[in-house]
Design brief:
Elements (H helix, E strand, L loop, with lengths): L4 H4 L1 H6 L7 H14 L8 H33 L1
Length: 78
């Protein structure tokens, strides 16, 4: 069983649940999922590039969040 970091970080728990995705993020997630499954949408090159930029930004944000969470865990647990 994994332990949720929010159980150990009161400030995160006090802020409430994570915000919901906005439309572009949700669109990028759907595109990423379909591309991963080999069912990419038929889009023009410009739209493909815009979505790829959003997907990369989302992946970077997720990685940064994981790094921040790891730093918090290390700081709290010593």
């Amino acid at each position: 069983m994994t332990m949720d970091v929010r159980d150990r970080v009161p400030a995160r728990a006090a802020r409430g649940p994570a915000p919901a995705f906005d439309a572009p993020e949700l669109e990028a997630l759907v595109f990423e999922k379909r591309a991963f499954e080999g069912r990419a949408l038929a889009l023009d090159e410009d739209a493909r590039r815009r979505i790829a930029v959003r997907v990369r930004a989302m992946r970077r944000a997720r990685r940064d969040a994981r790094v921040r969470a790891a730093r918090v865990r290390r700081a709290l647990l010593g």
